[in-house]
Amino acid sequence: MKKGQIRKALSGFYYVFSEGQTYQTRARGNFRNRNLTPLVGDYVMFESDNLTDGYVLELLPRHNELVRPPVANIDQGVIVMSCVEPNFSSNLLDRFLVTLEYEAIRPIIYLTKVDLLNDDGYQEILEVKKGYEAIGYQVILPSLDSDLEATEAILRLFDGKLTVFMGQTGAGKSTLLNRLSPELGLKTGEISTSLGRGRHTTRHVELIPLGGGLVGDTPGFSAIDFMEITVPELTKQFPEINEAADFCKFRECKHVHEPKCDVKKQVEAGVILKSRYQHYLQFLEEIEKRKPVYGKNKK
What we know:
This protein has three domains: about 1-60, CATH 2.40.50.140; about 70-215, 3-Layer(aba) Sandwich (Rossmann fold), CATH 3.40.50; about 230-290, Probable gtpase engc, domain 3 (Ribonucleotide Reductase Protein R1, domain 1). It is about 25% helix and about 25% strand. The chain is built from eight helices and 15 strands. The chain has helices at about 90-100, 120-135, 150-155, 175-180, 230-235, 240-245, 260-270, 275-290, and strands spanning about 1-10, 15-20, 20-25, 45-50, 55-60, 65, 70, 75-80, 105-110, 140, 160-165, 190, 195-200, 205-210, 215. Helix 1 (about 90-100) packs across helix 8 (about 275-290). It is found in: Cytoplasm.
């Protein structure tokens, strides 16, 4: 047996990279019976006599995983959000951030289509940048004149990391990756003006060597459901709310109607962004109304 990493999954085949070679493999027959699905990014044990006919025999333990995009063992996620066409959505951004926080994946926010903004719009986006940086997130915002500096800044983050790209459909993930590495030739799609969103242009997940690390280009999507996060866990996925929660009177405070809630106090004082608190309340309601899901649970 050999050890390798799945770098691409396509049409039932898993392409495993091991010692400088890529092997085309299939999953072992009993994986389905054991409810196991190999993911791109998985480290595996496999056997193969040649480069085109091998079998994945064992999945090694994962550090984390995402369902959309279906990738395992991720170090960081670049959330690509458009400033306009489609319009910037702080709600969707916070959904991505909560998802990454829950899986212990470092978020990096990258804002696109800055050149389409007028001066007032650019100032508004600058305020958004400041707000999220105050929480502790890294936000990359290209200048109005050139995105070269922003491109170089993000390229420096890849070294030794497995990075996935996610974000709004039509925000320009593939365009950004093509700029980072023109030889990729990834397909880009036009925005559907009638729907106000983009067409899905990425057909499969593949890890691409770039900047000394591995980068996955993944499908964009416009909705995220919190299928595993529980009510007590939600607070922990908002760093600034979690920090303020230590000073609430009640340990199990949900920060809704409870008295002497430091979270609500900081929202009123402008320390915690009102939009973040409103999204927390919305996500809390969604989780409380969700049907019970039995599976993994993070304490």
